[in-house]
Amino acid sequence: MQNAQIFTLIALAVYAAAMALIGCLSYRKSKTLDGFLIGGRSIGAWSTAFAYGTSYFSAVVFIGYAGQHGWNIGLGAIWIGVGNTVIGCLLSWLLFANRTRKMTKKLGARTMPDYFEKRYGSKSMKILAAVIIFVFLVPYSAAVYKGLGSLFSAVFPGVQTWVWMLIMACLTAVYLVAGGYMATAYTNLVQGVVMIVGVVCLVVAVLSHDAVGGIAGLVQKLGSFESLPGDPNPTTGAQLTSVFGGSSFKFLCFNIMLTSFGTWGLPQMIGKFYAVKDTAAIKRGTVISTIFCIVIGCGAYLIGSTSRLILGGVLPEGGVDAVIPTVLIKVLGNGTLGIILLAVIMILLLSASMSTLEAVVLTSASAVAVDLIPAVRKKGVPANKQMLLTRMLCLAFVLCSFVFATQNIPIIVNLMSFSWGIVSGCFIGPYIWGLFSKRITKIGAFAGVLSGLLVVGGATLVITLTQSFSAAASKSPEMGVAAMAVSLIVVPVVSLLTKNKDEDKARVEEIFACYNED
Asked: What rounded mean pLDDT belongs to the chain?
């Protein structure tokens, strides 16, 4: 184990140095707000595709989702990876990428709140959107810290979790504050390659393990699995091999919908389409990103489904959040090749987490520096001061997320689902309808944001008061899906009952002319 720790530390040091170097080299391209926030709208297919994919899948997908759902549901959990690929990635690129690129370029919008203000002519909507982003993406980011910290603590039991979270926070802050979106685009490319190599290696290693015996052995052994006496999460072989999740079918469907449709309204995901340079890059990026997502998403849940066999049906200390870390130690903890693979996997999970963190941090910091403060300050903020303010807020957001993550909140998956659901639930309706329909009114869009907020916020408040916050958090997938559905319905319905002013109609016609332009 000591050799594994030494080799992993060396790999981490090399990786950290490479990320810091990329950040420094990108500094000269991030001296303007356009350069810092969206890379000057000049990002190519590979960088954009990998940026989308790496922001989608963080360590929480492996540590939280794949560990928990693979353990409880079994092979059926792989459908989450399939849903993420088809709905969350492929359809998102096909339906929204080019329209988003063209409209945000026409509007000169660099952020989601900026898009709302210029598309609907509403400064109030911009302010509300900025507040929602900054407030609710803190726990999202904290969940990423917590997930990765749990893994590193399993490999380095002598080092406390907060130390690893602090190291990750500092590294993310260095290259993000220095290089902005351009740095994240380059680092995402490197991180994406590491993630693909790591997942493929891990899938091969896990399937080759004696307790699994390949795909055929996995299906056969899971089918005859019997829970041990006293198992806090008892299950059956029929459940673990059920194609559609068996008794967990409803739960599985809600998680697929939340984590797949949710990307359609998350500003850190949609922001990737602002920066892509042209239609040709989008066509290539669609294919690249889809392949990336099916490898990472399905690979993660396949690994999770082997956990009961590899761990002998014994849930490790630390619960479902400790499933994947324990599997890694079991499979890769011995032998030279295993040690090398363990180091690769650790870099994989670090890459997955940092790419998600940088996207969330940049989105949140810009929401305050570019959207909120200039909107409420009568004199505005000079461009040079906005740049400095954005960089400083990146640091502040990293610090807030780190502090939040150090608190004793063990429900990683639910915490991330809650943030994911409420942010996407607020934005999905106004964002999508704004791209496709000229008839959407300012009031309709505003109602969509408020409805998503009220659905999740109201349900959380009621369940917390009558039961507990933990009970509310466990219902986060259902609340998130409900919020997205309500937002998508409320926006057009309210728009039918209200009207745009004549000057708004003329402005909207001019905006939609962007689709006729190259």
From this structure: 83
